[in-house]
Amino acid sequence: MDRATFACSTAFFRDYNSSSQGAFCLPGGHVDFIEKVESFTYSDFFRDYLIPNHPCIFSAKFTEDWGSRRNWVTWDGKPNFDHLLQKFGEAVVPVANCDVKEYNSNPKEQLPFKEYIKYWKEYIKNDYRSSRGCLYLKDWHLSRAFPEQDVYTTPVYFSSDWLNEYWDAIAVDDYRFVYMGPKGSWTPFHADVFRSYSWSANICGRKKWLLYPAGQEEYLKDRHGNLPFDVTAPSLQDRSVYPRYNQSQPPVEIVQEAGEIVFIPSGWHHQVYNLEDTISINHNWVNGCNVAIMWCFLQDELAAVQREINQWKDPMDDWHLQCQLIMKSCTGIDYKEFYNFLKVIAENRISVLENGLDDEASAKNTPKAAISTLGMLHAVFDLKRTVKVLTSLSANEDFKKLDLTSLSPPPEALLHHLKAAIDTALL
């Protein structure tokens, strides 16, 4: 990104009120289609989609050089089962049954990949019917399990990815997934983990997306405050069950073709259908543009836990700690880990600002190399956003009730270091 363009984007963001994201409405449900790689810059994406939290679609030209687009697809655009079996036949994969509702999702089981492919072939041969139901391979961490495979390269537009930067650093998890499913498989109504952004690229096949801008989901809740499992169900028309449904906007509808990438904004609820036999690659990601939304989500989640077990507050000595434990079991993170998340992101950027990038790091696919690619002004932007959220976290009463002695450095010291690094960088 050139310095002048990013400076304009940063100035725009300073004046941007993130709370306005929930009120955003696409005129006529229009979603921009980005056709040409050479004429669309990171600055364009940052300014027009990340900051205002708008969805968009990238054409198949953005993925045409991926190994998976060349090798995972047959000449007529179908999944190349033989190639997939050769490369991944011995893997064990998570598979959901789309025909069964379990709470507000589908039940999952672990299956050998070769068994799933055998099922899929038989399902197609039997006119997309099976006594086992419609099975959908979802949330497969293929990149982590097969790092040597030439599958895809993350587009630069999505390279400021704090979630995967942090979880790679602690070597515990990641938010990079492969989905494979037959025509008719689908994902129920939901918003992504931590209210993150997501991007989804079709390797083959077609998807239909139903998108609701952040905030619209409030009109879709039933009288008990629960979100629907299926936003197309006729029961939503029953005002005695869904009293505010008639106040909701129609969903933004996208039909995603093979090779195309859909960008889903932070906090947008959605429901997705595979219109054909489809393979896709999906990432969840957070960065400086939406980390405040992640922090708001965590506060809301903790408040919900506290309401749920409020009756145990007085007799339980470690009630606040138990609330954190329950929240982590539900969301995957608690306040102390959120602090460590912010620390890792901040320290990576401080290191680049203070020490630059050595030749070995710049030659590798590392977080520091990505920071360098986006430029020093982007690193400063990230640090400024981190300071705001870290200041709020440090002042939070629930955070202060925790045992913070294990945090290194202490929040006050990290904040001081952050502010000093920003001041030095802007001199």
What is the fold named in CATH at topology level of the largest domain?
Jelly Rolls
Q: Report helical residue fraction.
A: 25-40%
Distance between the termini: 20 Å
Any idea what the radius of gyration is? 22 Å
Q: Which ranges are low-confidence, i.e. pLDDT below 50, for 5 or more consecutive residues?
A: 1-25
Number of domains: 2
> How many DSSP helices?
15
Spatial strand arrangement across the major sheet: 1-2-11-8-13-6-5-3-4
The SSE string, one letter per element, is HEHEHHEEHEHHEEEEEEEEHHHHHHHH
CATH architecture of the largest domain: Sandwich
**How would you describe the shape?**
globular
Question: For the record, what is the CATH homologous superfamily label of the largest domain?
Answer: Cupin
Organism: Oceanodroma tethys
Catalytic activity: L-lysyl-[protein] + 2-oxoglutarate + O2 = 4-hydroxy-L-lysyl-[protein] + succinate + CO2
Family: Belongs to the JMJD6 family.
Cofactor: Fe(2+)
If you had to describe this structure to a student in words, what would you say it looks like?
Helices cover 38% and strands 17% of the residues. It has a nine-stranded mixed β-sheet with strand order 1-2-11-8-13-6-5-3-4. The protein has a four-stranded antiparallel β-sheet with strand order 7-12-9-10, with no helix packed on it. It is globular and about 65 Å long. It catalyses: L-lysyl-[protein] + 2-oxoglutarate + O2 = 4-hydroxy-L-lysyl-[protein] + succinate + CO2. It comes from Oceanodroma tethys.
